[in-house]
Amino acid sequence: MTQCDKRVSLLHGPAPRALCRTTETMNHELPIPLPFLPFALPEIGEEEIAEVVDTLRSGWVTTGPKAKRFEDDFTAFLGDPGLHSLAVNSATAGLHLALEALGIGPGDEVITTTHTFTATAEVVRYLGADVVLVDIDPATLCIDVAAVARAITPRTKAVIPVHYGGLAADMPALLALAKQHGLKVVEDAAHALPTTSGGRLVGTLGSDATVFSFYANKTITTGEGGMVVTRDAALAQRVKVMRLHGINRDAFDRFTAKVPSWYYEIVAPGFKYNLTDIAAALGIHQLKRARAFQAQRQLLAEAYHTALAGLPLLRPPGPCPGDQHAWHLYVVRLTDAAPISRDVFIERLYAAGIGCSVHYIPLHVQPYWRERYGLQAESFPHSQHAFERLVSLPIYTRMTVADVQRVAQAAAAALRA
Ligand SMILES: *Cc1c(COP(=O)(O)O)cnc(C)c1O
Predict the structure, then answer these.
(1) Which residue stretches of 91-187 are H helix?
(2) Is 218 a catalytic residue?
(3) pTM
(4) What is the pLDDT of residues 371-383, one digit of tens each?
(5) Which domains does the chain have, with CATH numbers?
(6) Atom 8 of ligand 1: nearest residue by CA position
(7) Sign of the torsion angle spanned by Cα atoms 403, 408, 414, 416
(8) Ligand 1 atom nearest to CA at 93
(9) What pLDDT digit, counting tens, does each position of 255-301 carry?
(10) Cβ(157)–Cβ(104) under 8 Å?
(11) Rounded distance from Cα 58 to ligand 1 centre (Å)
């Protein structure tokens, strides 16, 4: 496997042959193909690298001072000192911990959107509770709050909205509904750093907990990682204990307390969900660049919006006036005027050297969820309709407006019957 194979296949499946053809093996009669434009790539700078090296040299590689600094920086970034930020090794772990801390368990129901990644829902099953999937708002592809209202039963304990693609779900309506019915709200903010709703950053909106992801293709990355944010001190304490084996003090406290102490207590069968200092070292510098990253993503989204005008593609909605979209994803939908299917569209873009993805194959289509709950596509008409037509185009900070124009030209060519 060559380096370029590896780089692409990690996130984007096998590389097309053109990517790995070297100039030696290439027939010089043929035009040199443009390099493959991957669907996603992280942007790791020298500061991140230096901080990781510093961590490695420090002798403290697992959870310690840098994880703590990353948490403090995260709270400062959100601008609300009343928040607790708790670093974990994935958003999946964070969602699990938040629901556990809220006491979700067997017999409970948790409502979420079918139009998400399975992690949003699987954590509910970890706890023995049941998932109730609902449809989306066809304009935003975020959870439909009216559908949530219809799905509430006496067993409903919580709702997990997803800020799809980096656009805030309708949080004012959802929080009002949750309050009316005494439901907990845990935001899946894996796409939403930084996103605002009503001028306030996601993470500060007043839900019980908000969970961010720092997976490799997210808006900032630590390779693998996540952050649980909450204003609830008791919930924060439970997450803190449960992310590290149910130990009543974490390793950092234990080894850095004024009086070094070997003593600890196990108060619950906890998990191993702590974030390493190696990962936090990346996060500290990625977070400093989060606003600049968002600005670059927004620039690319605006360039797409212009470059794709006139094609038989429905472009994604922007944020509400005055709000910010994180633009983790740029999702278009083929309209009925498109002469080809979504699958053929993706094949043609791929042949033109452009990586794409589909967010998401809805959960109601996936065998586990479909069979477990006897789900049918007719119950999720908006998600199903969108799924059959949507494509996520590449959007990441290392792209240029010229890359966007190349994608748009390839899309235009692909859409000629
Ligand atoms: C990426 C993602 C997750 C999981 O994040 P990890 O950090 O990989 O666990 C959860 N929900 C959504 C919507 C995601 O996109």
Answers:
(1) 91-101, 118-126, 145-151, 171-181
(2) yes
(3) 0.92
(4) 999 999 999 999 9
(5) 22-32+291-414 (3.90.1150.10), 46-288 (3.40.640.10)
(6) 215
(7) negative
(8) 9
(9) 666 666 788 899 999 999 999 999 999 999 999 999 999 999 999 99
(10) yes
(11) 30
